Amino acid sequence: MKKIYFIPIIFILISCNNDDYILLNTEVDQDQKSFLKKAPGATGLDKQLLNDLENVSNGIGAPYFILPDSEQYSSIPQDPLNLITVEKVELGKLLFHETATGGNPKTSSNLFTYSCASCHHAAAGFSSGLRQGIGETGVGFGMSGEGRIINSSIPLDSVDIQPIRSPTVLNVAYQDIMLWNGQFGGTGTNEGTEANWGGIAENFLGFQGVEVQAIKGQGVHRLLIDDAFVTTFQYKQMFDNAFPDIPETERYSTVNAALAIAAYERTILPNQSPWQKWLKGEYNMLTKEEKRGAKIFFGKGKCYECHTGPALNDKNFYAFGMGDFDNSNQAFVLQDVNFDNVKKGRGGFTKVTEDNYKFKTPTLYNLVNNGFYGHGGTFTSVKEVIEYKNEGIPQNTEVPTGNLASQFGNINLTKKEIDNLTLFIENGLKDPNLIRYAPIALNSGNCFPNNDNISRIDLGCN
Prior knowledge:
The protein has 2 domains: 1-68 and 285-430, Orthogonal Bundle (Cytochrome Bc1 Complex, Chain D, domain 2); 86-268 and 443-459, Cytochrome Bc1 Complex, Chain D, domain 2. The chain is 29% helix and 3% strand. The protein has helices at residues 30-38, 44-55, 86-97, 209-220, 227-232, 236-242, 248-251, 254-266, 274-279, 288-297, 339-343, 346-350, 382-391, 415-428, 453-459; strands spanning 12-14, 21-23, 138-139, 149-150, 317-318, 359-360. The longest helix is centred in the C-terminal third of the chain and has 14 residues, at 415-428. The chain is globular and about 60 Å long.
């Protein structure tokens, strides 16, 4: 039998309201398209689901939802100012996990104990495993990040903790803006918001959100990548390989480190999940219940109206009335954060009333690895979120009814439908091998994603 290769072509990303079409430079191999159309080995249920996919993708069908291979750079959405290369990805992979980047702590005892991966690691689906990710002043790891706590001996004003639940890094290639309110990113979706870029000078560099976040995050989270770091921890040759066209006097910089990190992040794709394999014709990868759940997802449940395309997310913002950190239990509210803005989501950034309490659509892959859901982490299971959206009773009573998403409380799912939808999201969308995106060791030799004494014990570092 002829071996089939998939080379992604044109995916049309459809917005939640189906009125916004964005073409991506991708490609569908015609042999694979023909193969999927014939669907050899598909059951009646598989064929029904394939038909549903055609109906919600302007006739493209299964290929519309397929993620590219992580090494297939030309098919991965990327910033034209930061093209993905092998050398950048190799460097970014190490810098992302390198606890030696934790070189600018507020408390000297925390030197070289944290990294980007402290809040975005493979064990938690590249989220934190916590309701709020903890960088500096965090100690411990547990099994999948759930054991990390604030070091009680450190003053609270030194704590580096996320003011809102840490989003996953999975599928960020399919976002041109970053954060729940989308404030990072100087192109595309954020065009026209320049008046609100105060404090985000990095947006004016013209990069997309993944790159801007990687630049901005180094300062916010007390990371330090400079000439001394590059020399001390033996990263000079890797920078030279990744940025040969940059003058050596400018090569070992925060910006170039960020560009390498962003290039690596764009390759972190959950393309080994059962759903991705099913899309490519391995129809036994989903159970009957999971297939029925997928039919709910792409039908009655209306999930596809916001969760679409290869990453199962669009670039829009919606209000579902979910709770915030400051009105929920077990949350640490930062005193130096303006929570009125945080609570208002996109509106807190754009200052547009219609945007208030709306948050960016998250990807749904590997949700089950994290354990906290919603921008405020006020849910602890996927099923809870589905039931909440089905019932349509807001947790946050401050959200104006007119701002609530049209799908909220308007899907009328039965208990069995909720159960099947939960199985599809939890099992079908879970890539079981994300550890392939983590390095085996760092140039520094440090433990990662954390390097404090308790984490070293939890992680089995020598």
